[in-house]
Design goal:
alpha/beta, Rossmann fold, five-stranded parallel beta sheet, five-stranded antiparallel beta sheet, 13 helices, about 40% helix
């Protein structure tokens, strides 16, 4: 019997895909669950997957790899999609698909499968990774094939086969959780006029319910990578968990946006990224101190393209690798400490220092100094403004003004 390896989360879609694959393809189904920090116990998935018809299940702990090889490179690049989205789902999918390919090769499978819908971005992210790493594998995307048309249909399909699912018609949100964020889509959120309900948030509280007293946090960076919290050196996973807790308690990192999906439509999502928002704010503040003007401004352009590449699912591309090489050079001196004030959803810079600071108080002071001759500015302005002056003289001579 030919084998297929399914990216299995235990959620609604992948729960019903196991029997569907057996019924429609006759494949032996092997499930693969990736632990990227979902927060719940993954062990119960083993029993659930086997009861649903899988022959075996791999439960893979990918948390450390997720942070060091996917989160930190994107953080250092400063990549943010459409000014708000910190790419939590986007860069988790290539990692999951990479492990999916590795297990398929180990098992001698002829195909891989996923539960992403035909309307979303995840189908692209999964499949581009598979194509990049093993183009010989067949890819099965049930949402593009079956007769199930809605989440309500999927719930009914599961009930008919006695498969328990963690979704009800009363709370039909599509959620994706990992170490970096939690996303919410669907249900009443499909109408952009609807404000998110307070009980939606699971990683923290709304800003209104955050403490009335600010919380200060101090983050240490080495070459653009966060390495310590409040003076204590911490491994990546521990640091991320602590920042998520601090951010959640203070209502940090809630984003409500209508974004442009790669497939051409707009969608509305509500994201919780508490620790990630703290890290992005701190990293950006440190770069402002340590990067020169030309590099900082060009890196901002690179960040936009980097974010698009990650969002579009082309993580394993020569261009992203080339941009990574550029970012690597820019981060050589992004070392130092940033202090932030967390208060009711706000993440406010409250101090920054670095041994590689390009800020020089002797030059910047409004007081008397002995290092800057203010008369030099006159010649600079004359040369810098010469094209404007020449154009104005031409327009005056030509009677255009």
């Amino acid at each position: 019997m030919a084998k297929v390896v399914l990216a299995y989360s235990g959620g609604l879609d992948t729960s019903i895909i196991i029997p569907w694959l057996k019924e429609n393809y006759g494949y032996e189904v092997i499930a693969m669950s990736a632990d990227v920090g979902q927060g719940e116990e993954l062990e119960p998935l083993k029993e659930k997957a086997l009861k649903s018809g899988a022959s075996k299940i791999y439960i893979e702990d990918l948390k450390e790899e997720f942070i060091t090889d996917f989160i930190f490179p994107t953080l250092r690049a400063g990549a943010i999609y459409e000014g708000k989205y910190l790419l939590g789902t986007s860069f988790a999918r290539p990692l999951i698909a990479k492990r999916l390919v590795e297990i398929a090769e180990k098992e001698g499978a002829v195909a891989v499968a996923h539960g992403a819908t035909g309307k979303g971005n995840d189908q692209v992210r999964f499949e581009l990774t598979v194509k990049a790493l093993n183009p010989d594998l067949k890819i099965i995307a049930p949402w593009r094939e079956w007769n199930i048309k809605s989440r309500e249909d999927a719930i009914d399909y599961a009930k008919e086969r006695g498969i328990p699912v963690p979704v009800t018609k009363e709370r039909p949100y599509s959620m994706d959780r990992n170490l970096w964020h939690l996303s919410h889509e669907g249900g009443d959120l499909e109408d952009p006029w609807n404000e998110p309900k307070d009980d939606l948030y699971l990683l923290g509280v709304s800003p209104e319910k955050a403490p009335d007293k600010p919380t200060y946090v101090q983050i240490d960076f080495e070459q653009g990578i966060p390495v310590g919290l409040d003076g204590e050196k911490l491994p990546p996973l521990k640091l991320m968990e602590k920042l998520n807790a601090l951010g959640g308690q203070n209502g940090i990192g809630i984003v409500d946006m209508v974004e442009n999906r790669l497939v051409g439509m707009k969608s509305r999502g509500v994201y919780e990224t508490p620790g990630g928002t703290i890290l992005y704010t701190a990293h950006q503040y440190l770069e402002q101190l340590t990067l020169d003007r030309m590099t900082l401004h060009y890196k901002e352009q690179v960040a936009l393209r980097y974010a698009e590449l990650v969002y579009d699912g082309v993580w394993y591309s020569p261009l992203r690798e080339a941009l990574d090489a550029f970012v690597q050079v820019t981060q050589k001196n992004v070392t130092g400490t940033v202090r932030l004030k967390l208060y009711k959803g706000n993440c406010i810079p409250a101090g920054v220092k670095s041994p590689y600071s390009l800020y020089n108080e002797e030059f910047a002071t409004f007081g008397e100094d002995a290092v800057y001759n203010q008369k030099d500015a006159e010649g600079f302005i004359n040369l810098f403004g010469l094209p404007l002056k020449v154009r104005a003289l031409m327009e005056k001579k030509a009677g255009l003004r």
